[in-house]
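Please fill in the sequence for the structure shown.

STRUCTURE ENCODING:
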């Protein structure tokens, strides 16, 4: 006599054996959706059976770029996983594999797009600042752009004069 693991009743007719247990075919169900697993395709997690769709949704990494299941090589960045071909700059779509990238609003951005569109701009040259910044005179400056109005040497002292809204070093005042 064969007993169904789920309902504890005798099985007459078709018997389904899976995970070292016997079931009425309609009682061997996916742990998540509770639908019968009839096509012999199921996966297990912690000893429980799941249909392929639910298993993939619950336990397999999904690409943050396309939303599909990741089965091969992938990149983990910004707390998410990506197919290598979908790890792109959010703005210009340049591939970021092996590149230095920045984060903006939770998305990967290439250095060029970050510098051109997101980074603080230097008061003197107008270019984006992605490294060291000098903050002075209510503005951001590249260190090499924060120079004396008169002699054009970089200002390295903490005190300087301001003439016409631009810095002037102690030697030239």
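FILLED IN BY: designer on duty
SEQUENCE:
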């Amino acid at each position: 006599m064969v007993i169904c693991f789920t309902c504890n009743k005798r099985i007459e007719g078709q018997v389904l054996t899976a995970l070292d247990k016997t079931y009425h075919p309609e009682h061997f169900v996916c742990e998540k959706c509770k639908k019968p697993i009839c096509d012999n395709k199921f996966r297990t997690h912690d000893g429980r059976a799941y249909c392929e769709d639910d298993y993939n949704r619950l336990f397999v990494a999904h690409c943050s770029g396309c939303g599909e299941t990741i089965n091969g090589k992938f990149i983990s960045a910004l707390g998410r996983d990506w197919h290598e071909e979908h790890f792109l700059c959010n703005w210009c779509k340049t591939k970021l594999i092996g590149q230095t990238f920045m984060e903006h609003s939770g998305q990967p951005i290439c250095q060029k797009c970050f510098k051109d569109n997101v980074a603080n701009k230097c008061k003197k040259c107008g270019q984006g600042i992605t490294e060291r910044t000098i903050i002075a005179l209510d503005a951001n400056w590249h260190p090499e752009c924060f120079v004396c109005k008169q002699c054009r040497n970089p200002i390295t002292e903490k005190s300087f004069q301001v003439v016409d809204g631009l810095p002037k070093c102690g030697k030239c005042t």
